[in-house]
Structures are given as C-alpha cells and as structure tokens.
Design a protein that fits this description.
With 75 residues, this protein is an alpha+beta fold. 32% of the residues lie in helices and 19% in strands. The chain contains 2 helices and 4 strands; from the N terminus they run αβαβββ. The strands form 2 sheets. The chain has a two-stranded parallel ribbon. The N and C termini lie far apart (44 Å).
C-alpha cells in the first residue's frame, strides 16, 4: 500500500495560487541556468519576484533589484 498523500502533490500549486510575491534564492544572471529561467517565468506570469543572491546584490535582474539576503526584504 502506498503511503503517499496526494494532497502533498497539490501543495505547490496551492501556494502559488495564493502568492503574489516570491523570493527567488540564488537567482542568477546567467541565462543558461534554471536560476535565471524560473524567476523569468514567474515574472512573465504576473508574480512579483524578489531576486536574492549576494553575488549580484544591487544589480537589476528581471526588472528588479537583486538583494543580498532575505533579511533585506521588506514586508
């Protein structure tokens, strides 16, 4: 018998349907990385992204300023 809980499969979808602002840890400026494509996809689909990566802090990524840490996020 499979002990898998099907409601867990829906959890990411439920969270994304309620979220409007998403922090992307490790966001990258390198277009060949998922860390670039994922926030780009989210931004194209109406989410406000907050890119977080100390390497790119202060630079713009997907029209947003990259923050160095989660502690810098307001609200």
């Amino acid at each position: 018998m499979d002990a898998h809980d099907d409601s867990l499969d829906d959890m990411p979808r439920q969270l994304l349907s309620r979220a409007h602002r998403i922090a992307v840890l490790g966001a990258s400026a390198r277009r060949d990385r998922p860390a670039y494509e994922v926030p780009a996809y989210l931004a194209r689909h109406g989410y406000e992204i907050v890119p977080v990566n100390p390497r790119y802090a202060g630079q713009a990524l997907h029209g947003r300023t990259v923050l160095a840490s989660l502690a810098e996020i307001s609200e």
